[in-house]
Design a protein that fits this description.
Layout (H helix, E strand, L loop, with lengths): L5 E2 L3 E4 L6 H9 L1 H4 L8 H18 L3 E6 L5 E8 L8 E6 L8 H15 L6 E4 L5 H9 L3 E7 L5 E7 L8
Antiparallel strand pairs: 1-2, 2-3, 3-4, 4-5, 6-8, 7-8
Length: about 170
C-alpha cells in the first residue's frame, strides 16, 4: 500500500520510515512529552510504536503520518487517523516534539488529516478523544470546531469525551 503524502502551506505529512526512529525514541523517552501517549517508554517500545504506525496503514488503509516542516528537514511529530483493535471508535490523534509545540503544527496537520478523511476516505465525520487531563489536546479539538457528542469508557479504563470534527475542510485558519 502506498501511503499518501499531504502537503500544507508549512508542512509535509509523509509515510513513517525507519529514519524516524530517533524522534520516536526521544519523544517516548520524555516522560512529560509522552505522558498522554503511553510514555515514558524504553527505546524498544518506541520502535514498536513506529512499527505499529506503519502496520496500521496496511491493516486499515489509513494511519499516522510523520510531520516535517517544508522549510527544513527533520520530523517534528506525528498526526493521523487510527482505530486500534478493541477500541470503540476511530480517532484523529497527534503528538508533537516539545521544541515544535505552540507553533500551530498540530492544528495544521490535523486539518490536513481531517480533509483527507472527508475527501479521500469518504468519512462523514472525524472523531477525537483524549484523557480529561490533556487540556492542550482538548483546546486543539475545540479550535478544530470539535463538539462533544459522547462520553465513553475506553479499554484503558478511562472515561473520555468524544469530539465530532466534521466539515472542517472548509476552515481556513
Amino acid at each position: 500500500m502506498e501511503i499518501p503524502e499531504l502537503v500544507t502551506p508549512r508542512l509535509r505529512l509523509r509515510a513513517p520510515c525507519g529514519a524516524d526512529f530517533p524522534v520516536y525514541r526521544d519523544f517516548y523517552a520524555d516522560a512529560e512529552a509522552s505522558r498522554f501517549y503511553g510514555g515514558p517508554l524504553p527505546a524498544n517500545r518506541a520502535w514498536t510504536k513506529l512499527a505499529s504506525d506503519l502496520g496500521h496503514w496496511r491493516l486499515r488503509g489509513y494511519g499516522m503520518w510523520s510531520i516535517e516542516r517544508r522549510d527544513r528537514p527533520g520530523m517534528v511529530g506525528s498526526c493521523g487517523l487510527v482505530w486500534p483493535e478493541g477500541w470503540p471508535r476511530s480517532e484523529l490523534t497527534w503528538w508533537i516534539m516539545p521544541e515544535a509545540r505552540r507553533q500551530g503544527i498540530a492544528r495544521e496537520a490535523s486539518l490536513a488529516a481531517i480533509d483527507h478523511a472527508l475527501a479521500s476516505l469518504g468519512w462523514t465525520q472525524v472523531e477525537t478523544h483524549m484523557d480529561d487531563a490533556n487540556i492542550a489536546a482538548r483546546r486543539l479539538a475545540e479550535s478544530l470546531g470539535g463538539r462533544v457528542f459522547a462520553r465513553e469508557a475506553f479499554p484503558d479504563g478511562l472515561m473520555r469525551d468524544v469530539f465530532a470534527l466534521s466539515g472542517l475542510a472548509a476552515q481556513t485558519g
